[in-house]
Design brief:
- This protein has 10 helices and 14 strands.
- It is of the alpha+beta class and 426 residues long.
- β7 and β8 form a beta hairpin.
- α1 packs antiparallel against α2 and α3 crosses α4.
- The longest helix is centred in the first third of the chain and has 26 residues.
- The protein is elongated and about 105 Å long.
- About 3% of the residues have low confidence.
């Protein structure tokens, strides 16, 4: 089992790999090349993964005694162990062998196997002799308190993926955890600035229109949590520290996903869709939404996001003949496909299902209209000697940037519009 710092590095590496795969999968599903921004993001991911791999070379170094040294110490410091039938250490084992296995059973697989084999042997012996007076052979004695109940398998967790929407959209590394500036072009005459020469004559003057560069402030919010871990729990519960750190990371990821959902659900471009809308009306709204995204950003949408209720609504849509509009076999007259396992494709675009969206609304957008930035803090620990404990904290800062699609008027009136993310619903 990896130690805390190694697990942190592995978690970050897995997160980066998942985000990179999400970017590539999106490009593949849309049958297009990677955009310039996506290529830059993948380059940053590659650099960070190389840094993590270098650190992992150091954190995974082994400091264990060699087997020969351990055997020599065992022979010097202990007498042979009196073996009983079913003992996995063999007849020539020493007490040092047994002690070493008990101390290292959570890091060494062979040691853990020997301990489990010994525990099973003792449990079988206890079961043979009985656990109550009524079922115990008279010569056995009451030993019910010695029966070992081993833990089998990994810890069960039914919470599902932590941040499917954030991973699919992809986040870039922020320079710090506080704020930074994001430059953009402001060109109200983009479509009209270029034109023919004056009077259509040679050597006549060409049109000339200015454009500006603006910078918007992107502010990050810190998301995290902490727990206190007692020395007793860390000592007696196998892998307690790793369990706590892993769960703190998962909670932080859930907080990041919640912030991403908040960034898309305040969309100012809304296409109304009644609760009792027909399949044809839903299909029309989806294509209207895609057109609205293109109008706002000059690019077609690259992601569609729904909650479990929205996924169920889309999957249940049928045409006038009662045929599903998103069938699992994707016939030629369907606009997409879906299956009960959670996959949903709308006109060739994979739909992201996130628990962060709690209603039936549908959202769509692309990387031009929404950018995510994250800053991961290192695992923070503080020893509490007076309490025989340790305090652990995991946190990250997340910022989202949505460039205005319509600039604000003089004095801020009318206000700027942010219509790159489209909401389809009521």
């Amino acid at each position: 089992m990896a130690d805390a710092i190694t697990q942190k590095l592995l978690d970050e590496r897995d997160d980066i790999v998942a985000r990179a795969n999400g970017i590539k999968r999106t490009a593949l599903e849309q049958s297009r090349d990677l955009s310039e921004g996506e290529r830059a993001t993948l380059t940053n991911f590659q650099t960070r993964v190389a840094e993590l791999d270098t650190q992992l070379q150091f954190t995974t170094m082994s400091y264990e005694l060699s087997e020969q040294t351990r055997d020599n110490l065992a022979r010097m410091n202990s007498a042979p162990v009196q073996m009983r039938e079913g003992n996995p250490w063999g007849k020539d084992a020493h007490a040092g062998d047994v002690l070493w296995d008990y101390l290292h059973q959570h890091q060494d697989r062979d040691a853990a196997n020997r301990i489990q084999a010994f525990n099973r042997a003792q449990q079988r012996a206890a079961e043979h002799m009985g656990t109550t007076a009524a079922v115990t052979v008279p010569v056995a004695g009451g030993i019910g308190g010695l029966i070992v109940a081993p833990v089998v398998g990994p810890i069960i967790d039914l919470s599902g993926p932590d941040m499917p929407l954030t991973t699919a959209i992809g986040s870039q590394d922020a320079p710090n955890g506080f704020q930074f500036m994001r430059p953009r072009i402001v060109d109200p005459d983009l479509n009209t600035a270029a034109g023919p020469q004056a009077g259509g004559k040679e050597k006549a003057e060409l049109p000339s229109k200015k454009f500006d560069l603006a910078s918007d402030l992107v502010t990050l919010s810190t998301i995290g949590n902490y727990l206190n871990l007692s020395l007793q729990a860390a000592t007696f519960v196998p892998g307690a520290l790793d369990i706590v750190v892993r769960q703190l990371n998962r909670r932080t990821s859930r907080g990041i996903e919640k912030a991403t959902v908040a960034a898309i659900t305040d969309a100012s471009k809304i296409i109304a869709l009644a609760d009792d809308a027909t399949a044809a009306e839903v299909q029309a709204a989806l294509f209207q939404g895609a057109a609205a995204v293109f109008t706002a950003t000059g690019q077609m949408p690259t992601w569609i996001a729904v909650g479990p209720l929205g996924w169920a609504r889309l999957g249940a849509l049928t045409d006038l003949a009662g045929r599903p509009i998103f069938p699992s076999l994707n016939p030629v007259n369907a606009v997409g496909s879906a299956n009960i396992g959670g996959d949903l494709s709308i006109a060739g675009m994979r739909t992201i299902v996130t628990a962060g969206i709690t209603d039936e609304d549908i959202f769509m957008g692309n990387g031009e209209g929404l950018e995510l930035y994250s800053y991961r803090y290192p695992l923070l620990t503080a020893t509490e000697p007076s309490l025989l404990g340790q305090q652990l904290a995991v946190a990250a800062s997340l910022g989202s940037y949505k460039p205005p699609t319509t600039e604000a008027g003089p004095g801020g009136t009318p206000a700027a519009l942010y219509e790159a993310i489209v909401k389809i619903g009521d």
